[in-house]
């Protein structure tokens, strides 16, 4: 193929049409193979050559023809055939990548034209596209003649990182045109083919993004399916979850071994240890236990070929009779407690590769192949590799399996304690009282922390109050100055231990991976330094500080780790209780808010100083500060409320479950005793005088009738408590992801259940009637916890208005319609929005009040009864967070209606 630049007008139109059509096809389809097939078809039709193919490089440098278009079988098909890595010299691949060089070969004339797009010296784009001709290598001529090719055009296809993390592209493949006769390539044609190659590169990036999205979606679906099986009550389905997990990893077998009770669940092919061994369970073998103990708790062991693991060669005999070669070992831990291990087996691979002719690797550089006939190569016993996506899936499933097994073990332990129910109830009552005391103490500390906005005073208050509350020997705050270093900036001790103020840790004692662990919520509780597993550097540090036990919780601010809150016990070892750990976590969260407030206060002071010279910016700065303060207050309020609600619900749920689970037994026992008494009465109808006197004194007949009623009432009461606890937990939604599909009717009903005590009649209060006009709603993708907050604010305001009106009506002795709240839900006509209406028949509001109800800190309630943040935050949640609409419709004397619209599909 020679090169010229003499296109006519018709060719130019065809070129533009082809380019436009190709771009449209690439943008219309997300399937890469379809795009590549259309590309070779259109390019071959455009160039009028015998064959156009797309050649893709593999990681080992070899290549495969993955798309091809042939004209009337003038040349043989190469689709699906592989070519060795040395068919294309490394120097040519380097020029394809660095200079984006195109090559035009004319076999008849024995020349090759090279046209780079970039300079080989500085990598900058060339202003003109020049063609440099030189003699073609004789080996290259024979290679093309053996394929029946007289002229060819090769354009590189590059692959760019769609996320922009890497600026350097990779050589993805080649767009190749072959012709069995001599053919001239026009400059315009080369330009169009280059533009099409650029569009293919874009399509490859789009395909990579699509593949990542699909893999992530599939991974989340598997996690949700397994999590559903693992968290079903009253019993979890470990066997079914194991089968689904193995299938999702394309395994041929697997097993779960639970350490505490030595339970083993298996599925598919399994290794067989010799029966004469004392421990014929793989996970109980000393070699296995020594091997797995060398790895970190959260480390996934992805082993492509178990026969290449030197430390497992003793156990490899157990796998000889199976097809197993690959193995993924997933240790299961709850916090730092080893629970068991999940193992997945993969079969060895046998693959067949179709090569375009058989080559002699020793002579390939000297003589080309004489034939490109298909040669089949069989590769057997290959080790299957584990990719990054599978490791991510394993890490997510590890957490779900660990939590589920721990929950199952906890439930089993609770069942064994039913015999001592009364003692356990007393213990739980004491724990609740302790929690309430800790909660009160937490509130007092929080108030003290918030009493000042000075950062140093705030930090000193935190360590002083925490040390007093935990009764520890030393409490300190370690602040990260950068990603690599930090120091102790404040401490509080009882006076008898040396100061560590200003202590800095080396990167060996506090490596970078610790930052990520603490950022993810890691809590480190060391009960005894002398027996815990610690690094030598960490152990020396604690010994030098005379620490016997310590407790570490992170202080996080958004997506950054600000520092660590650390409690030391120096005099003796100490077992840290869960309540103490939870308390320190809450204090760390409060400390983060207080520190952020102090920092914001310092920023506001600086802004106020600069505002003296820039009066025009004062109003904007103050407005931003007011919004930030409103969000911080509401975040603190909902965070504390959510933690308190979830904590109290959890603590109440345990003793109530004890009582509820044993009421049926107590009822049966009572019935059996009464039947026994009746049997005694029938067998001994004439009791002596002392028994008759006792029966009369205790009113025996009434007792027999009333005792079953009492048991029934207790059961009804415990069921009522359980339903309230469930509603509190659902309302807080602390155990769910922020953005997900939920049933908003459930959120409204939970809100009404929590506010039931304010709705029902009591004393002189006649109660408020709630009318539900629910439509048939699908699940809505939204922030469920924040939408519950909106419902709580709007309905609470309606109750306040109606309650005040009822008091005024009683004082005035006036007859008005009974107080009513009407809640309606609908889907919009175009099925794109969810419509929610919450209306009351209260006194309504004036136009001036209605204009300001969504302003922060505006309220019509008396001082101390309202903050003026509820509706402002609700408006931000609906409008800014969900891209919806929130309006108030009200007139004096005609009630108030809040109209809420949110999209069914969460805006991205």
Structure, explained:
- The protein is an alpha+beta fold and 908 residues long.
- The chain is 45% helix and 21% strand.
- It has 21 helices and 29 strands.
- The strands form seven sheets. The protein has an eight-stranded antiparallel beta sheet. It has a five-stranded antiparallel beta sheet with strand order 12-11-15-14-13, with helices on one face.
- A hairpin with a 5-residue loop joins strand 28 (885-890) and strand 29.
- Helix 9 (421-450) packs parallel to helix 13 (578-611) and helix 13 packs antiparallel against helix 14.
- The radius of gyration is 37 Å and the shape is globular.
- Residues 5-10 have low confidence and may be disordered.
Largest sheet: 8 strands, antiparallel
Which percent bin holds the helix content? 40-55%
Residue ranges: pLDDT <50 for 5 or more in a row?
5-10
How many beta strands in the DSSP annotation? Answer: 29
- What's the helix count? 21
User: Which whole number gives the mean pLDDT?
Assistant: 81
Beta-sheet strand percentage? 15-25%
Structural class: alpha+beta
Strand order of the largest sheet: 4-3-2-9-8-5-6-7
Intertermini distance = 50 Å
Radius of gyration: 37 Å
Shape: globular
Care to give the gist of this entry?
The chain is of the alpha+beta class.
